[in-house]
Design brief:
The complex is a heterodimer of chains A (260) and B (67). Chain A is an alpha/beta fold and 260 residues long. Chain A contains 9 helices and 10 strands. The mean pLDDT of chain A is 95. Chain B has one domain: Beta-grasp domain (Ubiquitin-like (UB roll)). Chain B is mainly beta. The termini of chain B are far apart. The mean pLDDT of chain B is 93. Classes of the chains: A alpha/beta (260), B mainly beta (67). The interface between A and B is medium-sized, with 40 and 25 residues. Strand 4 of chain A pairs antiparallel with strand 5 of chain B, so a sheet runs across the interface.
């Protein structure tokens, strides 16, 4: 059990709802992952379009916590407007704050993200800011009142895993009391294990499951990976050593070794 | 008639229309959506009192998949 944004949850996986081969596959993948938080977005829709409405009906019936994003925003103002619209549509004050600063690697714009976070927190939002692994940006976000930080592992959808574990470790060390979630870049279940072993509270991912050959099976793999990584962290990892050390007792070694 | 831009598309609507009436005309009623007028969010409770003027830009956004 852990707590985020005022909710007590069992699963430490936040799962995306995009890019699945079909809505049915999305539903099954989310179910098997046992994720309790699903990310969604807002997009232009013509009155006659049915896709968005039927997607939303599936999600509503699954009884999950919904985390709307501000994807596509390039300024604090756009992100704030999107967040306000999302709060009304989805009926939640949770917002995944995403302000993109570079179109090529979809790197978040730290200046606009901090600006938007400050306004949204004052308006009563629980802000989940997508940020880089920069310690100073993380500090600025904490300073404006973020209880949650979501540094990237690597660029969105790249599947490159954790590019800079030492930066991520530094953020964990500096903010022991904030909820830290690795958002973006996770490609393999082992990346999620690594993130959790660093002491991160949760992992947010989408492409790694949705773009797998078998998303449903991969969703199950991530469920186990996140739980294994967390258990490993809680158990406390052994200290790495520069030298070898036998694990089998030396005392009682059979006599023939004594003549080596 | 005035010309407004809804989700990037030009639309002609009658003059002196408010957001409630526009939603009705464009057949969005009973769907899940939120509205922004010229880049600023308009809450549902303010639809009746928010008038639309010529060349206004309106965004009507609805739930969609996301990561």
């Amino acid at each position: 059990m852990w707590e985020i944004g005022g909710k007590k949850l069992n699963s430490r996986l936040l799962i995306g709802s995009a890019l699945y081969p079909s809505p049915a596959n999305m539903e099954e993948s989310i179910k098997i992952s046992q994720a309790q938080i699903v990310t969604v977005s807002l997009r232009r829709q013509n009155a006659g379009d049915k896709a968005g409405e039927s997607f939303w009906n599936i999600i509503k019936e699954m009884n999950l916590e919904v985390l709307p994003n501000t994807a596509g925003s390039h300024s604090a103002k756009e992100a704030i407007t999107t967040a306000q619209m999302a709060r009304e549509v989805f009926g939640t004050n949770w917002i995944k704050l995403e302000v993109i600063g570079d179109q090529y690697n979809l790197q978040p714009d730290p200046f606009e993200t901090v600006k938007a976070a400050e306004v949204l927190i004052k308006e009563g939002f629980e802000v989940f800011p997508y940020t880089t692994d920069d310690l100073v940006v993380a500090t600025k976000l904490a300073d404006v009142g973020c209880n949650i930080l979501m540094p990237w592992g690597s660029p969105i959808g790249s599947g490159q895993g954790l590019m800079n574990p030492s930066n991520l470790k530094a953020i964990r060390k500096k903010f022991p009391n904030l909820q830290l979630i690795i958002d973006a870049g996770i490609g393999k279940p082992s990346d999620a294990v690594e993130a959790m072993q660093l002491g991160y509270d949760a992992v947010l991912l989408n492409s790694a499951i949705a773009l797998a050959q078998d998303p449903v099976k991969m969703a199950e793999a991530f469920k186990h990976a996140i739980s294994a990584g967390r258990l490993g962290y809680e158990a406390g990892l052994m200290q790495e050593r520069e030298f070898a050390s036998p694990s089998t007792p030396v005392v009682g070694t059979p006599f023939w070794h004594q003549f080596d | 008639m005035i010309e407004i831009i809804v989700n990037g598309q030009k639309q002609k609507v009658k003059e002196d229309i408010n957001i409630s009436e526009m939603i009705e005309v464009l057949e969005y009623k009973d769907k899940s959506f939120a509205v922004a007028l010229n880049g600023t969010f308009v809450a549902l409770k303010n639809y009746n009192e928010t008038k639309i003027n010529n060349a206004d830009k309106i965004e009507i956004l609805a739930p969609m998949v996301g990561g």
